[in-house]
Design brief:
By secondary structure, the chain is an alpha/beta fold. It has 2 domains: 6-18 and 87-210, Rossmann fold (3-Layer(aba) Sandwich); 19-84, DNA polymerase, domain 1, CATH 1.10.150. The chain is built from 9 helices and 6 strands; from the N terminus they run βαααααβαβαβαββα.
Length: 219
């Protein structure tokens, strides 16, 4: 990564401690539609988009009338009950500012819905430093498909070899790998080292990476 010029940023679980909140919102939205799914079944799928999560946990396509209603309700619950209480992950703001000060191009590459993204960016301060952003609305297929990563690369206008992705889930790592990009992963999203295998490096949280940004593999 000696030629690193840009960083793609996942948000949920990476820069904002929101993975549990997303899982709870799904559980509650499904329950309102008479569908009971255990929290743990949903939690381990947070990081992939709703277009993949919903059919996996209950067999309903997000494109059906019921699927759209559940997805819409999940978004409402998340924004009303959980988003106002969220906090950045440890060191997220400081890491973002350091990357900006280093002159790296910063682009958000997230499976979050566009109407939720602005609130999430405010939580971690990313809105003040990023150069561009993409969400699930900018891709036909969500993570672990590489569509969102490809869209972010196009907007950041850098080749894959000069970019790294910061993420926290196996879905981030797979999506980035399929786009030819390495991932620096964080455990703060709730996954262990075995889940995050394939990452070029793993840290507990952004603050831990910040302490090592002048060392391999970031340098």
């Amino acid at each position: 990564m000696s030629g690193l010029r840009g960083v793609l940023l996942d948000i949920d679980g990476t820069l904002v401690a929101s993975n549990d909140a997303h899982a709870h919102a799904w559980v509650e939205a499904l329950a309102e539609h008479g569908i009971t799914v255990p929290f743990d079944d949903i939690r381990r799928r947070i990081g992939m988009g709703g277009d993949k999560l919903l059919p996996e946990v209950c067999g309903i396509s997000e494109e059906t009338h019921k699927g759209k209603a559940i997805s819409k309700r999940r978004g409402e619950i998340f924004k009303e009950r959980y988003l106002p209480k969220l906090q950045p992950t440890r060191g997220a703001r400081d890491l973002l500012q350091h990357l900006k000060n280093e002159g790296l191009a910063l682009a958000v590459a997230t499976s979050a819905k566009a109407d939720e993204l602005e609130g999430l960016l405010k939580v971690c301060g990313a809105g003040q430093v990023i150069d561009t952003k993409t969400s699930s609305d900018d891709a036909d297929n969500s993570k672990p498909d590489p569509d969102i990563v490809h869209a972010a690369l196009e907007r950041i206008e850098l080749p894959a070899a000069e970019v790294v992705l910061l993420g926290d889930t196996p879905y981030d790592i797979e999506a980035a790998s399929r786009a030819g990009i390495g991932t620096i992963a964080f455990r703060c999203g709730g996954w262990n080292d075995n889940d995050l295998r394939g990452a070029v490096a793993i840290f507990d949280h952004p603050e831990a990476l910040l302490a090592h940004v002048h060392e391999p593999p970031f340098r």
